[in-house]
Amino acid sequence: MRLTVVGCGYLGATHAASMAELGHEVLGMDSDMDKVAALNSGKAPFHERDLDEMLARHTASGHLKFTSSYTEAAAFADLHFIAVGTPQLPGKHAYDLSHLFSAVRQLAPHLKGPAVVAVKSTVPVGTAPRVRDLLNEFAPAADAIEVAWNPEFLRESSAVEDTLRPDRLVLGFETEHSWAETVLRQCFEKIIEAGTPTIVTDWATAELAKASANAFLATKISFINAIAEVCEASGADVTTLADILGHDVRIGRRGMQPGLGFGGGCLPKDIRGFMARADELGVDQALTILREVDAINNRRRERMIDLAREQLDGNLTGKQITIWGAAFKPNTDDIRDSPALAVAQKLHELGATVTVTDPQALDNARKTHPELNYIDDPIAAVQDADLLLHLTEWPQFSHVDPHRLAVRAASAKVIDGRGTLNADTWREAGWTVRALGRP
Ligand code: UDX
């Protein structure tokens, strides 16, 4: 099949390359010319496992191309995926849908024949009819255009795998047995034939699928982090407790790793956008739980600052603090709402000298946080440190031998914010070890 993907960020670039991998002819469209140039040379402008290799292969074979032209995109195919970003509005909880509406508005005048517009961007429920209205107003072939909703559940760092082998496929349509359904079933044929549960539903349910999934994931993380607060007050160990709870298949251990909490470009903004939409719909009480989820998450960052202060005898001024981690989670260079960087920035504001290291995210961190110091090597970064904080659980950090570090640090004190360092090994190497939620 021929198809386009409008918006080539984390979601769109991955989707475009994955569709080429499924055997389709794909044209990615993005208004950012630098991004288009990078993608056409087979390189993603961000770090995502397996993506560069797939981009290089399919751009070289000519099955995958990128452009900045809506005219070209409209002429290329009759199936258009929209994957533009829907960030949080500055100073508000609601989504900024301007990129989505602008993309549809710019594509529409070029749609002169039957087409399917399939939206993947995360939106508040009730957005699909607004996309439909825009097409009615601006597309010459409005009556022959169908809108489909196809939410994406990919996780950064396993985005390619999640796109090619998703847990489920959700397809939302305005009417039953539509032409759009036939087109999307054909597009995802290989994924459906592999036995992927495929749920065909209405627009609103498809829109809510993504919002509810992320609300649940965030709630699960904040639940165990709320329990971590109780563990800290009572001397219990939240990691062992999470293991115990996780053996109950109704609870499950995955997605329940206690620690510094969630960040990134999705969970924080999606729970806030969901609350804002519930408010508009007059059912704000239904989602007050998410206010608490957000508050618990933010408290983890404050708790880390308090623990750091405690370890430094109540005084942060002039202290050398090394932070392992800048990315919002391991195996990505994404620093959007990174808990690690939020803690780093706060400690800097409180007077500490903060040095950050990360295997992938330092270039991005340097741009947004020029006030911090950066060092590539996690061992060299500990030189003369009064305190080490482990805030993003890259496997590289767990593999460092703490004996090699103890001699470099001014004071061998570490706080594990992700619960993945082996506390016994570190203590044997002479470190004072504290961890969130653990005695
Ligand atoms: C998330 C959803 O998982 C994905 O389905 C959705 O499409 C987009 O949002 P992502 O933001 O890439 O994906 O990362 P995820 O792996 O869910 O982690 C989000 C944050 O939660 C990270 O900061 C991570 O460190 C934290 N987290 C995750 C925990 O603190 N504990 C966990 O058990 C899992």
* Lateral strand order in the biggest sheet: 3-2-1-4-5-6-7-8
For the largest beta-sheet, the strand count, sense and barrel status come to: 8 strands, mixed
- Residue runs with pLDDT of under 50 for 5 or more positions: none
CATH topology of the largest domain: Rossmann fold
**From the helix content, strand content and strand pairing, which structural class follows?**
alpha/beta
Residues in helices, as a percent range:
40-55%
Overall outline: globular
What distance separates the N and C termini? Answer: 57 Å
Q: How would you name the oligomeric state of the polypeptide chains in this document? A: single chain
CATH top level assignment of the largest domain: Alpha Beta
Report the CATH superfamily of the largest domain: NAD(P)-binding Rossmann-like Domain
- Distinct small molecules bound, one entry per kind: uridine-5'-diphosphate-xylopyranose
The figure for the number of domains is 3
Going by CATH, the architecture of the largest domain would be 3-Layer(aba) Sandwich
List the SSEs and their pairings.
Layout: E1 2-6, H1 10-21, E2 25-29, H2 33-40, H3 51-61, E3 64-67, H4 70-76, E4 79-82, H5 98-107, E5 115-119, H6 128-138, E6 145-149, H7 159-164, E7 169-173, H8 179-187, H9 189-193, E8 198-202, H10 203-234, H11 238-246, H12 267-280, H13 288-311, E9 320-324, H14 339-349, E10 353-357, H15 362-368, E11 373-374, E12 387-390, H16 395-398, H17 402-406, E13 413-416, H18 423-428, E14 432-435
Parallel strand pairs: 1-2, 1-4, 2-3, 4-5, 5-6, 7-8, 9-10, 9-12, 10-11, 12-13, 13-14
Antiparallel strand pairs: 6-7
Helix pairs in contact: 1-3, 10-12, 10-13, 12-13, 13-14
